[in-house]
Amino acid sequence: MRPVYMISGGITKFKKAHPDKDFRLMVKEAFDYAMNEIPDLSLKMIDGSVGSYFSDHFTRQLKAASMVQDYLGLCPKPSKRIEGGGATGGLCFQAAWEAIASGRMNVCVAFGFETMSRVNTWKGNEFIAHASDTNFDYPVGGFYTGYYAMMVQRHIHEFGTKVEQLAMVSIKNHGNAQYNPYAQSPMRLTINDVRSSPMVSTPLTMLDICTMSDGAAVAILASEEVAKKLTNTPVKIIGVGCGTDAMRMADRPHGEVILLPHEKEEDYKQLKYPGVHSFRGGRMASKLAYEMAGIKNPIKELDFIELHDAYTSSEIQTYEDMGLCKYGEGGRFVEEGHPFIQGIDYGIDLPKKGTIPVNPSGGLLACGHPVGATGLMQAVFALWQLQGTIKKHLGNDKLQIKNAKRGAIHSHAGTGTYITVSILEKGFL
What we know:
Blueprint: E1 4-11, H1 23-37, E2 48-52, H2 56-59, H3 64-71, E3 79-82, H4 88-101, E4 107-115, H5 121-129, H6 144-159, H7 163-177, H8 191-196, E5 199-201, E6 204-205, E7 214-223, H9 224-230, E8 235-244, H10 280-293, H11 298-301, E9 304-306, H12 312-321, H13 330-336, H14 363-367, H15 371-387, H16 390-394, E10 406-413, E11 418-426
Helix pairs in contact: 1-3, 4-15, 7-12, 7-13, 12-13
């Protein structure tokens, strides 16, 4: 297995709608941005691509990735489409990693997009609901906000999590997005703002939930030999992991907690696992990525994480799945301030601010969620963090994590049916 590096990336602004741009043009803009960052990289040197988008329905176009391949000038080189619900972009990133690690390619472009504005919001939610079991969940109201509301209600029941702690996730991510010109929904919020916004599915309000978006993102991956020729600021992909679970939560068996390297069996003697409060697939993805990367304790060895916060509640659940705190402690973890950024004033008291910044970009809650692009957007922000080039790309350095050497990206589908975790590290080893 060969070393794999991310050498460049680009994104479009995520917006509620890009009526002036179709999916091909959005990807081309992100691709051109990435190519301009590596002037010695030519189209001829690219061996192929992996394309990602979630739903054919939004574009009303089958085989849209092959149309992008042509628009980028990459025909007749190899390409394939990856789809895996909300984890589509993360799976695409790992598929590109596999192409390089296997030796099949030396340079691979991972591109992703979604044009969710092409349909009404209610119809978009129906399309997204098709990623539930259409024989069982869907006919009885299988919209995802209902699932996540049920999960957080259980988290509240089991662990005493508070709705004010959910609101703090929204405050953090929307607050970070004020410094990210690519984000769809930057804003300064209070707990009252979040809790008084329209209720969608108790206890989740509008400001607890990400929004549908139009957008695209591109990541360019290369072998070590090629990376050394093209750039002095590569980022090495040192760990990848993926986990899965049953589509129907009722089909998920209880068992022993999947332990991460810094945990012990006695930590969870009383925990019924996974229940509906946790994502077993997220645990497995984290475990495999940490093992490959040689990470013994993520809270000490990672400098930041970009994770899939489709809901404020799922960010809290993911703190626990990724081992940033023990199961049941995610609410307190955010309330104490651990995932906030040191240099930003959020208007709330945070006694342990900045232990490990989570979603410096603003995450899905504030950036938006054009599904096929989201996991790749995370990769691009991780690249810029590790290169120390946030100011160059965003026009300010408020979101730059000082001396960042290692970070993680996390992509999530359904109620945890596909989950990916990838670990990136600064420079050549």
